[in-house]
Amino acid sequence: MDKEILDDLDQGLHGALDAFRRECTKLRTGRAHASLLDSVRVDYYGAETPLNQVATVSVVDPKLLQVKPWERTMCPHIDKAILAANLGLTPSNRGDVVLVPIPAMTGERRKELVKVVKHLAEEAKVSCRNHRRDAIDLLESIEDFPEDDLTRAKKKVQELVDGMAKKIDHAALDKEAEILEV
After folding, report:
1. Mean pLDDT across the chain, nearest whole number?
2. CA distance between the termini of the chain
3. Which of 8, 66, 143, 153 is most deeply buried (CB count within 10 A of its CB)?
4. What is the spatial distance between Cα 66 and Cα 82, in angstroms, rounded to a whole number?
5. Coil, helix or strand for 147?
6. pTM of the model as a whole
7. Which of 116, 167, 150 is CA-nearest to residue 13?
8. 3-class DSSP assignment, residue 16
9. Does the CA dihedral 162-125-127-16 come out positive or negative?
10. Fold of 2-26+106-180
11. CA-CA distance, 179 to 168, in Å (whole number)?
12. Domain extent listing, the chain
């Protein structure tokens, strides 16, 4: 029973780390990468559709994304969708492709993004602590669970949470270094 609880805890902790990393990829660091446009939804014949399902997004150079729709008629819709996404990007419709230049980041914007990364890391650690609390509550609710085994299981839970907190901190430091890189 305690093995199942620890496995569930481990899955929850990895979920928190994955969510943190996903949120970090949405942050614009001054370099072009296709995942910057993952949150863009395009009006595709009346249905809000993710951009990557109606076009190919590729990196032309470190400061330029190219969006090549599968249907040429989608270019104006893609252009509008990128503007409406409020990503701070200004697309350029070239008829058969949409070019999205990535503006250079200012020092002030870099500092703001570092604060955002720290906030996201703290949210991920709070999620880990919530998983820890839930796991300990489940362990304590097991009837006829020997006290020594309960103590060992709680210690194992804490070790898992501490290890994941270190991974989150490391990922946050990596992202901060990427943001501050000029």
Report:
1. 88
2. 51
3. 153
4. 12
5. helix
6. 0.71
7. 167
8. helix
9. negative
10. Topoisomerase I; Chain A, domain 4 (1.10.132)
11. 16
12. 2-26+106-180, 34-101
Asked if residue 27 has pLDDT above 80, the reply is no
Q: Among the CATH numbers 3.30.1360.40, 3.30.70.100, 3.40.50.720, 3.30.428.10, which is that of 34-101?
A: 3.30.1360.40
Interatomic CA distance for residues 34 and 64, integer angstroms: 10
55, 78 contact by CB (below 8 A): yes
Is the predicted pLDDT of residue 182 greater than 70, yes or no? Answer: no
Distance (Å, rounded) from C-alpha 93 to C-alpha 158? 53
Question: Quick check: 153 and 2 in contact, CB under 8 A?
Answer: yes
Local confidence band at 105 (pLDDT 50, 70, 90 cut-offs): confident
pLDDT at residue number 8: 92
DSSP assigned state of 54? T
Query: Which amino acid type is present at position 34?
Result: A
Percent of the chain with pLDDT over 90: 39
87 or 46, higher pLDDT: 46
Select from 65, 63, 105, 61 the least CA-distant residue to 82: 65
Name which of 26-40, 102-116, 127-141, 148-162 the model is least confident about: 26-40
